[in-house]
Amino acid sequence: MTDALAGTPTRLFIGGAWVDAADGATLPVDDPATGEILCHVADGGLKEARLAEDAAVRAQEAWARTAPRARSEILRRAHELVLERTERLAHLMTSEMGKPLAEARGEVAYAAEFFRWFAEEAVRVDGGYGTLPDGRHRMLLSRRPVGPCLLITPWNFPLAMGARKIGPAIAAGCTTVLKPAPQTPLSSLALAAILQEAGLPDGVLNVVTTSRAGEVCEPLLRGGRIRKLSFTGSTQVGRLLLAQCADAVVRTSMELGGNAPFVVFGDADLDKAVDGAMTAKMRNMGEACTAANRFFAHRSVAEEFGERLARRMAALVVGPGTRTGVDVGPLIDAKGRAKVADLVADAVARGARVLVGGRTPEGPGCFYPPTVLADVDTGSRLMDTEIFGPVAAILAFDDEDEVVRRANDTPWGLVGYVFTEELDRALRVSERLEVGMVGLNTGLVSNPAAPFGGVKQSGLGREGGRVGIDEFLDYQYVAIPRT
């Protein structure tokens, strides 16, 4: 066991106590850089999920009555503790997920900022008071916590996605049951320990690590006591969860898949565009819902853009995330790597040119090289599949209407990227893209102060920003007769 793992909880966190699964079951946590087992954590089932739900329900009334300033102070202390433990948390995340330490440190800071942001938002929940138009009644409007929440987080940003959901729930006065991805449970357990140390009362946050997601989640969603689901993951799983929420009319926030277009117009600053492409594609080895999937470059610059991007990708160092100088760590598991390799093979079979990469390396670990494909056929599977890997597929286009149509030709609508130096075009194309977020001459859109989310099959609701806390609040209107 590494120093980062030593002292990290490996049991379930229920009602303020660290407990084993009742049947003693455990699940392995693998190192994707070596394929070796790092440790085992408790593998909870329905019994433990019910106990976590019970704890959240018991704690809800008192937590909803807790002063907003008290909730804010807990989040502020959590922010400080996360930053104090940056190195430990970064090494832990790299061990279980694979991303290079530099990126892991960045995620620690990103996660901490959600706690600070929602510490500030906790004391800004307000309502309204006024006279109704008929003049016969006054209206008192207040906002109240929605109630116990189920939070389901993905493996690609295990610390930040936990903080992005836990932060607003705590700020709003909601209790929670967190189910992290089975590939990366350690970051969530470490986060729970920090929040406990920060003074979070027992039962406000409960963590159930499990390999049995269906057994754990469906009964909670159909049972009626969980009043809110916040999920980040694939569109396929999101559809299933939405159906399960229907019986009890559970409120939902769904941050689902993406298929981001990256559009480079002929007048774009190519240095800026290539920098943006490296960020939008290679952040987290391409394992991000915001990752650029489809690169549309105007025919006048397509070849040069591809060559420049290929040179930058070829210079990246691939290896274990803990090794100094590494830019690209392993993909999450063998299944994920096989999917990426299959998508590349399909594109090449349809005529795509490999400018760099494209071959699965031998040896241990789930590594795949940074890859750039040119002249990609529109019928290639990677055109309508979330790649989740370090592969940039470039297609040429001739005019604005064409590229907007092709960019929007997808059921997803999370984020799009536009590079142009012409202001009117920049705003016009941004407005025409069917996405929830646009990176205009930048490859990075994520920020705790901005509302994160998409349209179409990329999800419902928003996380972060001033509206992030609204997802965990209900409105109550009181009519008061005027005498």
Strand content: 15-25%
Task: Give average pLDDT, whole number.
Answer: 97
Quaternary organisation of the protein chains: single chain
Level-2 CATH architecture of the largest domain: 3-Layer(aba) Sandwich
Rg, nearest Å: 23 Å
Structural class: alpha/beta
Can you list the strand order of the major beta sheet? Answer: 14-15-16-13-12-18-19
Task: Specify the CATH homologous superfamily of the largest domain.
Answer: Aldehyde Dehydrogenase, Chain A, domain 1
Shape: globular
How many β-strand runs? 22
- Give the count of structural domains: 2
CATH class of the largest domain: Alpha Beta
**CATH fold naming of the largest domain:** Aldehyde Dehydrogenase, Chain A, domain 1
Distance between the termini: 72 Å
Task: Summarize the main sheet.
Answer: 7 strands, mixed
Family: Belongs to the aldehyde dehydrogenase family.
GO molecular function: succinate-semialdehyde dehydrogenase (NAD+) activity
Protein name: NAD-dependent succinate-semialdehyde dehydrogenase
InterPro entries: Ald_DH/histidinol_DH, Ald_DH_C, Ald_DH_CS_GLU, Ald_DH_N, Aldehyde_DH_dom, Aldehyde_DH_Superfamily
Describe this structure in words.
With 483 residues, this protein is α/β, with parallel strands linked by helices. The protein folds into two domains: 12-256 and 458-478, 3-Layer(aba) Sandwich (Aldehyde Dehydrogenase, Chain A, domain 1); 260-447, Aldehyde Dehydrogenase, Chain A, domain 2 (3-Layer(aba) Sandwich), CATH 3.40.309.10. It is built from 13 helices and 22 strands. The protein has helices at 46-65, 68-84, 86-97, 101-121, 158-172, 185-197, 213-223, 235-246, 270-282, 302-314, 334-349, 400-408, 423-432; strands at 12-14, 17-19, 26-30, 37-42, 128-131, 137-145, 149-152, 176-179, 205-207, 228-232, 251-255, 260-264, 292-298, 353-356, 371-374, 391-397, 412-413, 415-419, 437-440, 455-456, 459-460, 473-481. The strands form six sheets. The chain has a seven-stranded mixed beta sheet with strand order 14-15-16-13-12-18-19, sandwiched between helices. It has a six-stranded mixed beta sheet with strand order 9-8-7-10-11-21, with helices on both faces. Strand 5 (128-131) and strand 6 (137-145) form a beta hairpin. Helix 2 packs antiparallel against helix 5. The longest helix has 21 residues, at 101-121. It is globular. Residues 18-478 form the Aldehyde dehydrogenase domain. The active site is at residue 255. One of its GO terms (molecular function) is succinate-semialdehyde dehydrogenase (NAD+) activity. This is NAD-dependent succinate-semialdehyde dehydrogenase.
